[in-house]
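debug: dumping io for the single-chain case to check the tokenizer round-trip. Nothing else runs in this session.
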Amino acid sequence: GVITGQGLLILEKVQPAGKRPMAAQDFARGRPELIGAILQDGA
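debug: decoded output
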């Protein structure tokens, strides 16, 4: 899940730019640097 300022968001699927949707677990396995990372809005 993703902790937000409003609570917890459970991701079931993600779709990286230019790629097909995939299970969130599969995405996380391929991007271990994101586990525990603090993400910010790119705006």
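debug: round-trip ok. Strands lie at 2-4, 7-9, 13-14, 22-23.
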